[in-house]
Write a structure and sequence with these properties.
Elements: H1 2-12, E1 17-23, E2 30-36, H2 43-52, E3 66-68, H3 69-72, H4 81-87, E4 94-102, E5 105-114, H5 121-144, E6 164-168, E7 174-177, H6 179-188, H7 200-213, E8 222-228, E9 231-244, E10 247-255, H8 258-268, H9 273-283, H10 288-295, H11 299-313, H12 318-326
Antiparallel strand pairs: 1-2, 1-5, 3-4, 4-5, 6-7, 6-10, 8-9, 9-10
């Protein structure tokens, strides 16, 4: 889907390279990047500086949701650490930055790199006008990730992998990882031959940890990412108390908790706060009467909210709803 979006954008707005990153809607941290950059070996540095750079950061954009790096730096690209430390050497002359967000959260951000000239105001306006449709489409993709597929579609013994850990240096260079991590990443990013998968989700949460430590942003360094239909992982970064063989950051992968699944499920299906409350009540085992008592509403209102939730999610019953929301 993202590639189709990029193809359409490219027909009217020329660009040379891109990064289209899906984010956790609550933490705003990247979890599923799609990128074409000049040098993949330089990706850790590009990601690190993206998170550490205030001008043009997706979390700082105004209501339009779109700007250029040239505009964000007041015409002085040297004010951007990412440009000065990474993009400049690749001949980048401007970056169009857009954020995909709505009242339910931040679903992604898009960077378009240009090597010749700058982005015109009309091009920025064209992307900004398309953002509501792009955001809705991305959110709907996340919602569809909760549909439980046939057994063959699920990763083999995913629940038996156990938590995985990746150790990185402050420059985001991977140092070591557990066997369980290899299982998770190979499922997330299948690769050919003996080449190891690029832990892009790990690089993003680790970069967010650095941003928090530097005072650039205060969102937690974690995110939820779809492993397969019906299966979600939480990726989280933390600082090691003492450096270990060149590593200073630990990134953990584990199955997403029921509470965090319910939160993401409600956001992805654009539920109202009260609809979300009803789903949580049902997920804790309450019947209609119990949910009504907990929420201080009538049983009829609970049933009305559930009808709306069924319509939003495509669930045919409470059991089907919980199977989608909780993966059980």
């Amino acid at each position: 889907m993202r590639r189709r979006m990029l193809d359409v954008i490219g027909t009217v707005i020329p660009y040379d390279f891109y990064a289209f990153v899906l984010t956790d809607p609550q933490t705003t941290v990247g979890t599923s990047p799609l990128a074409e950059v000049p040098d993949l070996d330089d990706l850790p540095r590009v990601i690190r500086l993206k998170y550490l750079t205030r001008p043009g950061r997706w979390t700082t954009l105004d209501a339009s949701g779109c700007t250029t790096l040239l505009a964000a730096t007041g015409g002085d690209l040297g004010r951007s650490d990412q440009w000065e430390g990474a993009l400049r050497q690749h001949g980048v002359t401007d970056v169009l930055v857009a954020v995909l967000r709505d009242r339910h959260g931040t679903w992604g951000f898009l960077d378009l790199w240009r090597r010749t000239g700058v982005f015109a105001s009309a091009e920025v306006a064209a992307v900004a006008s398309a953002l509501p449709r792009l955001t809705a489409a991305v959110r709907n993709v996340v919602a569809r990730s909760f549909v439980v597929g046939p057994p063959a579609a699920a990763p083999k013994a995913a629940t038996a992998y156990g938590p995985g850990v990746l150790l990185l240096g402050d420059d985001l260079t991977p140092v070591a990882g557990t066997r369980q991590l290899r299982d998770w990443l190979t499922t997330l990013l299948p690769t050919a031959g003996d080449a190891g998968p690029v832990p892009a989700s790990a690089l993003n949460v680790a970069a967010q940890l650095l941003a928090v430590e530097a005072g650039v942003d205060d969102h937690p360094p974690s995110g939820r990412v779809a492993l397969a239909p019906g299966t979600w992982l939480t990726v989280r970064a933390d600082r090691l108390t003492e450096p270990l063989s060149g590593a200073s950051i630990a990134v953990g992968y584990e199955l997403t908790s029921p509470a965090d699944r319910l939160d993401l499920f409600a956001r992805a299906h654009a539920m109202s706060p009260r609809e979300s409350d009803v789903v949580v009540a049902v997920a804790t085992g309450l019947d209609t009467r119990g949910a009504a008592r907990r929420l201080g509403i009538t049983e009829l209102t609970v049933q009305d909210h559930l009808k709306s939730v069924f319509a939003r999610t495509g669930a045919a019953s409470r059991a089907d709803l919980l199977a989608r929301a909780l993966g059980s």
